[in-house]
Amino acid sequence: MIIELAKLKFSYPEQADSLVLDIPSWSLPIGEHTLIHGSSGSGKSTLLNILNGLLSVNSGHIEVLGQRLNEMTSRQRDNFRANSIGYVFQQFNLIGYLNAIDNVQLANYFSKSSEKSSVTEEIKALLNSLNIPKKDWQQPVHKLSIGQQQRIAIARALINKPALLIADEPTSALDEENSADFMALLMSIVDSSQTTLLFVSHDISLSRYFTRVESLHDINQAGAVNAD
Amino acid sequence: MLIKLALKSLHDRKGSVILSIIAMTVSVFVLLGVEHVRHQTKQNFANTVSGVDLIVGARTSSLNLLLYSVFKIGSPSNNISWQSFKKVAENPQVKWAVPLSLGDSHKGYRVLGTTESYFLHYSYGKKHKLLFQQGQAFNNVFDVVLGYQIAVKLGYQLGDEILLAHGLGRTSFSMHADKPFTVVGILAPTGTPVDHTLHVSLQAIEAIHASGKNTYHASKPDKRSELKTDLPPQLSANYPSDSMPSSKSTLTPKSITAFMLGLNSKMSTFKIQREINNNRQEPLSAILPGVALSELWQIMGVLESTLFLVAILVFISASLGVSAMLLSAIKQRSREMYLLRVIGAPALFLFMLIELEALFITIISCALGVALLIASLFFAQTYLASYFSLQISLNIFSLNSLTLIMAMIAASALVATIPSVVSYLQSKRHYVVK
Ligand SMILES: Nc1ncnc2c1ncn2[C@@H]1O[C@H](COP(=O)(O)OP(=O)(O)OP(=O)(O)O)[C@@H](O)[C@H]1O
Ligand SMILES: [Mg+2]
Description:
The structure holds two protein chains of two kinds. Chain A is α/β, with parallel strands linked by helices.
């Protein structure tokens, strides 16, 4: 299992009495490509931020890649996040004033994993395989199209060869064609690198790309209680 | 990577960053400028005159007398008569007396009418005598001895002929092309107002003034005529015997501006001072240069402290401005901060990032401020020198100013902890920004 959750409870400190997440038990096997879908505001992003260690849960057991997140110091969680988890958002994945290479390199800078000398070559290979034209590598990324930015974001997320790639609605800012291209590229690259993929979206039509599809409403009891 | 990120992010926000840098540069300029000028004036004033026991002029405040006689700032209220000078100079306690006559100019530089003994007795700093870099003292009416800076700035050499004007100011109302003065001596640099003064004989002053009244032609001496005064014996003794005048000249001064005295014994200073102050024929003031200098210094001190305080306040407000700019940028950059956290940046990294941005702004501003200061000193130098006899050196890198720059950098880093801590805390709370 790459993720194991048990009796997880979470609420934001501002609204301490209303639980956003209440997950009795859930797990994700290694190598699986999973889609979790849920409506807007159902707590998808919150769950992902718990899994990457940015948010701490109120109570419960949470294990990612064999590490118990709520027993780690925040410094350890920073390292863990840099080394073991790749992350792609809906938008603003990149630092706009840096170019593609710098953006990817920045992600590598925070990880202790790969030796820095060969990394530029790796970055270039990765950008190539993601169909980013060479002439755009040195441009500040805010000058590039959203589709290109999302593809650079994949490179950024994968540069440290994370065991787990988390994607938070990465296609919702793209049009249909770009979205299909993006999904095809993403799936081929996680297949070839054998990365476990956890993908959340409100768009159930993406189901066809995944080996496993779940609904957050089934996993999360907080929503069910609130709905009553 | 941290440095690269800080620089690129500043570059990305050029507009507000440049404005902050300008504000900061101005404040660095003001602070360093005030510090430099105060350091320089202190040296200037302290070293200007030494070895002179008393300075005597028409009745006025000691400060005023000091300013116009030594610093050649402002102008005297009244002249004093040649008789008064003679009377004091003949006092047996007086070792030497040097008359000073001011009020004329050459291209904005003051002309000092005096006697040759001026070059023997005037001293500055730690009792340094005036030295001739080239040539010698004036022998003839139309001889002029230049201060070092004048020769440098105006490019004059020995043997050059120049015109002196009646009155002060660059553009003179009565220049007379028919009476050029010949440069016979150039003094070595002193770092005092002497460098910016032209020295001629008292007779030359009379000649300039006589020509101003157009009565000069009748009594115009030959251009090579020798100096003639009815100086008291101890003064005349200073003249080389071969240049001692033999014929009576009509160019005897009726009045002078002030004179300097050296006494046989320091013990008699106060007695002589009292005698001069109580002079019945003419109201005179005698001052001790050291006492007047320290009086001047006290007034300047208050002024300087005030200026320095204001400069510090200006700097603090500029630092706060930079921090306010960074703080508001943090709000706009919360997405960027969150992203950095997600890819594994520790909260400390964000703290350092903001600190570094503030530091870069300060360092760039310091460099610009220093450059601006040197440039403006370069342009103001001549003006300050000729109008205020202030010599400000271009070298602003004293231990003081370097400490000040360090202090500024430290202070701005300190003020920048406000936005840095905010970004640190914000990233610690790691809120998903909608
Ligand atoms: N920083 C925060 N502070 C307080 N409440 C928050 C915060 N972020 C989200 N919430 C609340 O938590 C709930 C879940 O939000 P979350 O962002 O996880 O939903 P989501 O499923 O990702 O929605 P979307 O599809 O719109 O991205 C919402 O009710 C939201 O208002
Ligand atoms: Mg979301």
